[in-house]
Protein backbone atom coordinates (compact mmCIF):
# COMPACT_ATOMS: atom_id res chain seq x y z
CA UNK A 1 0.00 0.00 0.00
CA UNK A 2 2.71 2.39 1.01
CA UNK A 3 4.88 1.44 -1.93
CA UNK A 4 1.99 1.89 -4.35
CA UNK A 5 1.30 5.29 -2.92
CA UNK A 6 4.93 6.28 -3.10
CA UNK A 7 5.20 5.03 -6.67
CA UNK A 8 2.23 7.18 -7.58
CA UNK A 9 3.95 10.12 -5.99
CA UNK A 10 7.04 9.39 -8.03
CA UNK A 11 5.07 9.39 -11.24
CA UNK A 12 3.60 12.70 -10.23
CA UNK A 13 7.02 14.25 -9.78
CA UNK A 14 7.28 14.90 -13.46
CA UNK A 15 3.83 16.16 -14.10
CA UNK A 16 3.33 19.85 -14.49
CA UNK A 17 1.43 21.31 -11.62
CA UNK A 18 -0.28 24.65 -11.69
CA UNK A 19 -1.29 25.28 -8.12
CA UNK A 20 -0.56 28.96 -7.95
CA UNK A 21 -3.11 30.11 -5.42
CA UNK A 22 -4.98 32.74 -7.38
CA UNK A 23 -7.79 32.74 -4.83
CA UNK A 24 -5.85 33.52 -1.68
CA UNK A 25 -7.16 36.78 -0.37
CA UNK A 26 -4.56 39.50 -0.07
CA UNK A 27 -4.77 43.12 0.81
CA UNK A 28 -3.29 45.64 -1.56
CA UNK A 29 -0.31 45.94 0.76
CA UNK A 30 0.30 42.20 0.61
CA UNK A 31 0.00 41.83 -3.12
CA UNK A 32 3.17 40.41 -4.58
CA UNK A 33 4.14 41.06 -8.17
CA UNK A 34 4.60 38.04 -10.40
CA UNK A 35 8.32 38.66 -10.56
CA UNK A 36 10.74 40.83 -8.69
CA UNK A 37 13.49 42.69 -10.54
CA UNK A 38 16.96 41.96 -9.16
CA UNK A 39 17.14 45.48 -7.73
CA UNK A 40 14.06 44.87 -5.60
CA UNK A 41 15.62 41.88 -3.87
CA UNK A 42 18.82 43.79 -3.20
CA UNK A 43 17.02 46.87 -1.90
CA UNK A 44 14.92 44.77 0.45
CA UNK A 45 18.04 43.14 1.81
CA UNK A 46 19.62 46.41 2.85
CA UNK A 47 17.51 46.88 5.91
CA UNK A 48 16.26 43.55 7.28
CA UNK A 49 13.71 44.30 9.97
CA UNK A 50 14.79 43.54 13.52
CA UNK A 51 12.84 40.81 15.24
CA UNK A 52 10.95 40.04 12.04
CA UNK A 53 9.36 36.60 11.81
CA UNK A 54 11.76 34.00 10.38
CA UNK A 55 10.22 33.81 6.92
CA UNK A 56 10.18 37.59 6.58
CA UNK A 57 13.78 37.87 7.71
CA UNK A 58 14.90 35.10 5.36
CA UNK A 59 13.00 36.58 2.42
CA UNK A 60 14.96 39.83 2.80
CA UNK A 61 18.41 38.20 2.65
CA UNK A 62 20.76 38.65 -0.27
CA UNK A 63 22.07 35.44 -1.86
CA UNK A 64 25.44 35.87 -0.16
CA UNK A 65 23.94 36.62 3.26
CA UNK A 66 21.64 33.63 2.90
CA UNK A 67 24.50 31.31 1.95
CA UNK A 68 26.50 32.58 4.91
CA UNK A 69 23.64 31.67 7.23
CA UNK A 70 23.24 28.20 5.72
CA UNK A 71 26.95 27.62 6.18
CA UNK A 72 26.88 28.91 9.76
CA UNK A 73 24.12 26.40 10.51
CA UNK A 74 26.09 23.57 8.88
CA UNK A 75 23.27 22.94 6.41
CA UNK A 76 24.55 20.51 3.73
CA UNK A 77 24.11 22.35 0.46
CA UNK A 78 25.79 23.50 -2.71
CA UNK A 79 25.30 26.78 -4.50
CA UNK A 80 24.31 26.49 -8.14
CA UNK A 81 25.07 28.62 -11.15
CA UNK A 82 22.51 30.87 -12.80
CA UNK A 83 19.11 29.19 -12.74
CA UNK A 84 16.26 30.86 -14.61
CA UNK A 85 13.96 32.68 -12.20
CA UNK A 86 15.82 31.73 -9.01
CA UNK A 87 17.68 34.47 -7.13
CA UNK A 88 19.77 32.18 -4.92
CA UNK A 89 19.71 28.64 -6.34
CA UNK A 90 20.99 25.87 -4.09
CA UNK A 91 20.71 22.11 -3.85
CA UNK A 92 20.54 20.06 -0.66
CA UNK A 93 23.31 17.49 -0.31
CA UNK A 94 22.15 15.82 2.90
CA UNK A 95 19.44 15.73 5.53
CA UNK A 96 18.32 18.67 7.67
CA UNK A 97 18.36 17.81 11.39
CA UNK A 98 18.14 14.16 10.37
CA UNK A 99 15.21 14.76 8.01
CA UNK A 100 15.74 13.96 4.32
CA UNK A 101 13.90 16.11 1.78
CA UNK A 102 13.58 14.46 -1.60
CA UNK A 103 11.47 13.67 -4.61
CA UNK A 104 10.98 10.06 -5.61
CA UNK A 105 13.07 10.44 -8.73
CA UNK A 106 15.87 7.89 -9.16
CA UNK A 107 19.03 8.79 -7.28
CA UNK A 108 21.06 9.58 -10.39
CA UNK A 109 18.29 11.79 -11.74
CA UNK A 110 17.80 13.65 -8.50
CA UNK A 111 21.24 15.24 -8.65
CA UNK A 112 20.28 16.99 -11.90
CA UNK A 113 16.57 17.46 -11.40
CA UNK A 114 15.27 21.03 -11.41
CA UNK A 115 12.56 19.94 -8.98
CA UNK A 116 15.15 19.54 -6.21
CA UNK A 117 16.51 23.07 -6.59
CA UNK A 118 15.61 25.54 -3.83
CA UNK A 119 16.09 29.23 -3.39
CA UNK A 120 18.43 29.54 -0.43
CA UNK A 121 15.80 31.48 1.52
CA UNK A 122 13.28 28.65 1.33
CA UNK A 123 15.99 26.28 2.49
CA UNK A 124 16.55 28.35 5.64
CA UNK A 125 12.85 28.02 6.43
CA UNK A 126 12.98 24.28 5.74
CA UNK A 127 15.98 23.95 8.06
CA UNK A 128 13.82 25.38 10.86
CA UNK A 129 10.87 23.26 9.76
CA UNK A 130 13.01 20.13 9.90
CA UNK A 131 13.61 20.68 13.62
CA UNK A 132 9.85 20.72 14.19
CA UNK A 133 9.45 17.59 12.06
CA UNK A 134 12.23 15.80 13.91
CA UNK A 135 10.37 16.47 17.15
CA UNK A 136 7.48 14.51 15.58
CA UNK A 137 9.89 11.68 14.69
CA UNK A 138 9.67 12.44 10.96
CA UNK A 139 12.78 11.31 9.09
CA UNK A 140 11.78 11.83 5.47
CA UNK A 141 9.80 14.43 3.54
CA UNK A 142 8.78 13.44 0.03
CA UNK A 143 7.85 16.27 -2.26
CA UNK A 144 6.68 16.72 -5.83
CA UNK A 145 8.83 19.74 -6.51
CA UNK A 146 10.36 22.83 -5.13
CA UNK A 147 11.57 24.74 -8.22
CA UNK A 148 9.63 24.46 -11.43
CA UNK A 149 11.32 26.16 -14.36
CA UNK A 150 9.42 29.15 -15.72
CA UNK A 151 7.70 28.70 -19.08
CA UNK A 152 9.52 29.26 -22.32
CA UNK A 153 9.72 32.92 -23.12
CA UNK A 154 10.44 33.93 -19.52
CA UNK A 155 12.47 37.11 -19.77
CA UNK A 156 16.05 36.88 -18.60
CA UNK A 157 16.66 38.75 -15.39
CA UNK A 158 13.55 38.91 -13.22
CA UNK A 159 13.35 36.48 -10.34
CA UNK A 160 10.22 34.40 -9.95
CA UNK A 161 8.17 33.81 -6.85
CA UNK A 162 6.57 30.57 -5.69
CA UNK A 163 7.79 27.53 -7.58
CA UNK A 164 9.22 29.53 -10.46
CA UNK A 165 11.54 31.23 -8.00
CA UNK A 166 12.39 28.07 -6.05
CA UNK A 167 10.58 29.64 -3.10
CA UNK A 168 7.82 27.05 -2.65
CA UNK A 169 7.66 23.30 -2.09
CA UNK A 170 4.79 20.83 -2.57
CA UNK A 171 4.99 18.03 -0.01
CA UNK A 172 2.95 14.85 -0.42
CA UNK A 173 4.32 12.48 2.22
CA UNK A 174 6.08 12.41 5.56
CA UNK A 175 7.75 9.22 6.76
CA UNK A 176 8.37 8.46 10.43
CA UNK A 177 11.35 6.72 11.98
CA UNK A 178 9.24 3.59 12.53
CA UNK A 179 8.44 3.41 8.81
CA UNK A 180 4.87 4.64 8.97
CA UNK A 181 3.87 7.21 6.38
CA UNK A 182 1.62 10.22 6.54
CA UNK A 183 0.02 10.60 3.13
CA UNK A 184 -1.49 14.05 2.65
CA UNK A 185 -4.09 12.90 0.13
CA UNK A 186 -5.14 9.83 2.08
CA UNK A 187 -4.80 11.05 5.64
CA UNK A 188 -5.53 14.78 5.84
CA UNK A 189 -9.32 14.34 5.60
CA UNK A 190 -10.25 17.99 5.06
CA UNK A 191 -13.52 19.05 6.63
CA UNK A 192 -16.05 21.25 4.82
CA UNK A 193 -15.19 24.94 5.27
CA UNK A 194 -12.16 24.03 7.35
CA UNK A 195 -9.80 26.91 8.04
CA UNK A 196 -6.54 25.26 9.12
CA UNK A 197 -4.78 26.43 12.29
CA UNK A 198 -7.73 28.45 13.57
CA UNK A 199 -10.14 27.56 16.37
CA UNK A 200 -13.01 25.44 15.17
CA UNK A 201 -14.90 22.24 15.74
CA UNK A 202 -12.78 19.17 16.23
CA UNK A 203 -13.22 16.45 13.64
CA UNK A 204 -15.55 13.74 14.87
CA UNK A 205 -13.47 10.91 13.52
CA UNK A 206 -9.98 12.30 13.73
CA UNK A 207 -7.34 9.69 13.03
CA UNK A 208 -3.86 9.84 14.49
CA UNK A 209 -2.61 10.56 10.97
CA UNK A 210 -4.99 13.46 10.37
CA UNK A 211 -4.03 14.97 13.72
CA UNK A 212 -0.32 14.55 12.99
CA UNK A 213 -0.63 16.23 9.59
CA UNK A 214 -2.44 19.20 11.11
CA UNK A 215 0.20 19.48 13.79
CA UNK A 216 2.89 19.58 11.08
CA UNK A 217 1.07 22.37 9.24
CA UNK A 218 0.20 24.39 12.31
CA UNK A 219 3.60 24.09 13.98
CA UNK A 220 5.17 25.63 10.88
CA UNK A 221 2.43 28.27 10.73
CA UNK A 222 2.83 29.19 14.41
CA UNK A 223 6.59 29.49 13.98
CA UNK A 224 6.04 31.81 10.99
CA UNK A 225 8.32 29.78 8.77
CA UNK A 226 6.22 30.17 5.61
CA UNK A 227 4.16 33.14 4.48
CA UNK A 228 1.74 30.87 2.69
CA UNK A 229 0.66 27.35 3.62
CA UNK A 230 -2.00 25.62 1.50
CA UNK A 231 -3.61 22.29 2.40
CA UNK A 232 -6.26 20.00 0.90
CA UNK A 233 -8.80 22.20 2.69
CA UNK A 234 -7.99 25.02 0.27
CA UNK A 235 -9.06 23.60 -3.09
CA UNK A 236 -9.09 20.39 -5.11
CA UNK A 237 -5.74 21.20 -6.71
CA UNK A 238 -4.13 20.79 -3.30
CA UNK A 239 -5.90 17.54 -2.46
CA UNK A 240 -2.61 15.62 -2.41
CA UNK A 241 -0.02 18.01 -1.00
CA UNK A 242 0.89 20.86 1.29
CA UNK A 243 2.28 23.98 -0.40
CA UNK A 244 4.80 25.84 1.80
CA UNK A 245 6.08 29.18 0.51
CA UNK A 246 8.41 32.02 1.50
CA UNK A 247 7.27 35.20 -0.25
CA UNK A 248 9.61 38.20 -0.58
CA UNK A 249 7.86 41.44 0.33
CA UNK A 250 5.08 39.79 2.29
CA UNK A 251 4.49 40.28 6.00
CA UNK A 252 1.22 38.40 6.52
CA UNK A 253 1.01 34.68 7.27
CA UNK A 254 -1.78 32.61 5.78
CA UNK A 255 -2.74 28.94 6.21
CA UNK A 256 -5.67 27.70 4.18
ZN1 LIG B 1 2.83 24.57 -4.75
Topology (elements, then pairings):
Blueprint: H1 2-12, E1 35-36, H2 38-45, H3 54-59, H4 63-72, E2 77-79, E3 89-92, E4 100-102, H5 107-110, E5 117-119, H6 120-135, E6 138-145, E7 159-160, E8 168-176, E9 181-183, H7 184-187, H8 208-222, E10 228-230, E11 242-245, E12 254-255
Parallel strand pairs: 4-6, 10-12
Antiparallel strand pairs: 1-7, 2-3, 3-5, 6-8, 8-9, 8-11, 10-11
Helix pairs in contact: 4-6
The structure holds zinc ion.
Zinc ion binds at residues 19, 163, 168, 170, 243.
Write up this protein:
This protein has 256 residues and is α+β, with helices and mostly antiparallel strands. It has a single domain, classed as Muramoyl-pentapeptide Carboxypeptidase, domain 2. The protein contains 8 helices and 12 strands. The strands form 3 sheets. Strands 4, 6, 8, 9, 10, 11 and 12 form a 7-stranded mixed β-sheet that branches. The structure holds zinc ion. Zinc ion (ZN) binds at residues 19, 163, 168, 170, 243.
